Amino acid sequence: xxxxxxxxxxxxxxxxxxxxxxxxxxxxxxxxxxxxxxxxxxxxxxxxxxxxxxxxxxxxxxxxxxxxxxxxxxxxxxxxxxxxxxxxxxxxxxxxxxxxxxxxxxxxxxxxxxxxxxxxxxxxxxxxxxxxxxxxxxxxxxxxxxxxxxxxxxxxxxxxxxxxxxxxxxxxxxxxxxxxxxxxxxxxxxxxxxxxxxxxxxxxxxxxxxxxxxxxxxxxxxxxxxxxxxxxxxxxxxxxxxxxxxxxxxxxxxxxxxxxxxxxxxxxxxxxxxxxxxxxxxxxxxxxxxxxxxxxxxxxxxxxxxxxxxxxxxxxxxxxxxxx
Length: 324
Ligand code: HPA
Ligand code: ZN
Description:
Structural class: alpha/beta
Strand order of the largest sheet: 1-2-3-4
Number of domains: 1
Number of strands: 8
Bound molecules: hypoxanthine, zinc ion
CATH topology: TIM Barrel
Radius of gyration: 18 Å
Helix content: 40-55%
CATH superfamily: Metal-dependent hydrolases
CATH architecture: Alpha-Beta Barrel
Shape: globular
């Protein structure tokens, strides 16, 4: 099964590139940039990754990315991940990035874009890996700032496959970002949003109705609302589910308790993703393997899950044919 899952062509639709920063690279970049880290060793970093909820993770996630300063850093970050993903049989990666988290510490958007763009071209050329770019807004910061970032990104609008919405969900409902997402819609930029990770089913409805998203990142809490489940099934809305993330952020106690089998039984359009692989115990292959251990799914189930992601990917039809 490990061989089968490695060889299975996998498209990843839900990855935060800053969450792919492994402790080894964190240390290397800290040294390169003269940044002090509150850890003495790589082991100490990994030991600190014992999260009680989304916020306790976000605190370390924002701290970790403080080592990223130059375009070269962003390039190295992305290439480090693309190489690992490629070795796991990943053929397409859609990466969220968090411009506001970098702007807040004085790293300007062109720096981030230059580094990520360089890595994307290199990945295509050297690994045959296609990539997409999702500019995410931080929902725990105000909407005016998000709107400002969207306008500042004007030179890059053409390069954005979508805008997204991430960070602390509870208390930051989709309503807050109606104007920003409406602006993205008018610009012709597709929209996605995290919803129903820790937040209630109403946030999933809000993301669909108020933000016009074409997929829901996470969405696992939809099961609390049967009418919403029926709608997600009828519309075949893609859910980018992140199994190991949900365990590590205590959305569920154990993977065996995860609602994935129920989501599939309900006929929902589910995909498997890694979210923040450096923080949650593994990339795409580890997520697939963990599901195999927890649910004992057959090859056809994994083919279906991988196929769902390829059908939903932000690629042209020629590339989709290659991925199929
Ligand atoms: N949820 C919300 N925001 C995030 C996550 C997540 O899992 N990872 C990085 N930002
Ligand atoms: Zn996420």
